[in-house]
Amino acid sequence: MAASAPSTPQQQDEDVVGKAYDHRLMRRLLTYLRPFRLQVALSLIAIALKAFADVMGPFLPMIAVDLYMTHSLQADHAWVARYLSANAVTGISEVAAIYLGSLLFSYLLEFFQTYLMQWTGQKVMYDLRSQIFRHLQQMHVAFFDRNPAGRLVTRVTSDVDALNEMFTSGVVSIFEDVLVLAGIVLVMLRMSWWLALIAFAVLPFILLVTNIFRKHVRESYRRIRVAIARINSFLQEHVSGMSVVQLFNREQRAYKDFEVVNRQHMDAFKDAILAYAIYYPVIELLSSIAIALVVWFGGRSVLLHAPPNISPAVTGAVTLGVLVAFIQYAQRFFRPIQDLSEKYNILQAAMAASERIFKLLDTPSEIVSPASPSKGDDSGSIEFRNVWFTYQRLDAATQTQIEHGTFVDDGSIEWILRDVSFSIAPDEVAAIVGHTGAGKTTLTNLMMRFYDIQPGSILIDGVDVRACDLNTLRKRFAVVLQDPFLFTGTIASNIRLGSDTITQQQIEQTADEVNVGDFIRSLPRAFDEPVRERGNTLSTGQKQLISFARALAANPRILILDEATSSVDTDTETRIRSALRRMVTGRTSVIIAHRLSTIQQADRILVMHKGQLRETGTHQELLAQRGLYWKLYQLQYKDQELAGIVPEAVGLPTS
What we know:
Number of helices: 24
CATH topology of the largest domain: ABC transporter transmembrane region fold
Number of domains: 2
Helix content: 55-70%
Distance between the termini: 49 Å
CATH superfamily of the largest domain: ABC transporter type 1, transmembrane domain
CATH architecture of the largest domain: Up-down Bundle
Strand order of the largest sheet: 8-11-12-5-13-14
Structural class: alpha/beta
Shape: elongated
Largest sheet: 6 strands, mixed
Radius of gyration: 37 Å
Strand content: 5-15%
């Protein structure tokens, strides 16, 4: 197989369920906590103290009952009496005050721990989102061709939120629940091991129910994640193309399609809700049975002063205070078990999210700057040498054959460019024409190394683009596209586009040079006029003129105009025509056009056909050859020429 079609791993990625705990992923996740070691350490200390306070809570009522009410305090707890008043009323008041103080201390610790971990979680999420976005900016263009925008948005939003939930209420709460459970088990066994075993008798049933619940919720959460990713992709696509949806009256069909995806999300959530609605009452029922068993057997022991059928010499009698404490401990024992079941799902979702996030972060960019980049001569020259290119992903064997010159084309590869060679001299105006799909835009994308070619080489300023630093290479270019793209911000920020070297005076000057300055100044806030997403408040012509100003403000060595005038009105094209002479002067210019009127005065015209360079020359030379260019010219202008109304060529500088 010579080539493989681009894969769409969205479904597979969203189907990842993840283990409840993966030490490899967890170890990597915990590295994000390193800058916040102090906050995490303080939170863990607060959790340990709070767990101790929670475990000791029922112990105090036991002391009050056995010491002051039944006078049957066990010998193991006699040491407490030395610190309390001998007077019953005073002693009970002291125990109540200590109990209240422990509650207040526990609440304070919970506030302290919750605030610190929420603060830390937000810091970690901020760092993680920044890392993901920074990585996305460094990825090659082909990566975005293969990965839907909605899927990438899900990585930065939903998946990061799942990790935030783990950091803030997952791992920390699990640690607290484990400490509380361990403390309660030890205290209960210490007080009365046989009564503790009776309380724990329902544990096998709880574990069985929890395991069943976990499996069902795991599947529901997987379906929820798949549905969320589909909703994000669907919304991103249809909101961006809403004008097309409305133009073709596709609202009802789009609504039905969205309803299918939305219903999948709802059904998955309903299944999860049903599982929770069954699970929690069952756990409450089992815990109530355990408490009833404690009351039954413990109450009999209190009344009979000995456990039933067991020698008091071996175990000792259960007192009323111990029974009271056991009831409270039993209630507190099952609550962390419920929490652990919930945290299990949080941890599992976080593991799945982290696996997808790290898979994205570990995806290397296929186009990177070399370790030792070469510097060109700054001339602005462009040269293609026997360039072949396809958008298909070639397997290793085919790639090796191409590199060694042993590859035989059997037709399995859809080549976009086939053995293309040409050169454009510094400060030359070159035009590229051809039918749709001939490879015109591909040529300019390869100049800026958005993609890597297969055989051949591309030289900019006399240096192979693969040997150039990417930032330095792309700073040499400015591009004006057929579909202008403006970012949310202001008109000035869209012209400057983040460059600190472009002054306000330069912005205004370039706007005047492309004949858009008067329009901008007529706006209420002039150059500070807000621009909404994609410049939706501006007309296509206005956006195109601003794009021209952006390109001119960058002062590029090489200017690329990709069908820049094909979608504008006559008035805008007239404005561009008068500005184009100034734009192409003193720099190498590449103009892609369908309208031959825009390129008749170009120094060189390249005619592309089915991925091959078929003709090259000036306008008159190509007409004289009576080839493809002549046919294109005949199709566009023969009738007008006969009528004597051939459109005036754009004011390009003549050779």
